[in-house]
Amino acid sequence: MKNLQAGGFLFVGGAIIMTVTQFGKVVPIIGGVCALLGAGMLIYYLFSNEGKY
User: Fold this and answer.
1) Which keywords belong to this entry (predicted)?
2) What's the CA gap between 36 and 32, in Å, rounded?
3) What pLDDT is stored for residue 28 in this prediction?
């Protein structure tokens, strides 16, 4: 369950950071990376057996 929560927080937090345009071009890219990482964790947890293969 911890992996599911961590993936969700990364996805939502990264998506929020992606919308920030005040701090230049680097911060939205970092937010996009966080969102992709979080989405990958969510998909991995969804298709695995409670996070274990």
Assistant:
1) Membrane, Transmembrane, Transmembrane helix
2) 6
3) 83
Q: Are 9 and 47 spatial neighbours (Cβ–Cβ below 8 Å)?
A: no
**More confident call, 51 vs 49:** 49
| pLDDT over 70 at 39, yes or no | yes
pTM: 0.74
Identify residue 40 by its one-letter amino acid code: G
Query: Rounded to whole angstroms, how far apart are CA atoms 50 and 2?
Result: 10
The contacts of residue 45 (CB under 8 Å, 6+ apart) are 3, 4, 7, 51
Question: What percent of the chain is predicted at pLDDT more than 70?
Answer: 89
Rounded CA separation 4/32 (Å): 19
Residue carrying structure tokens 């920030």: 20
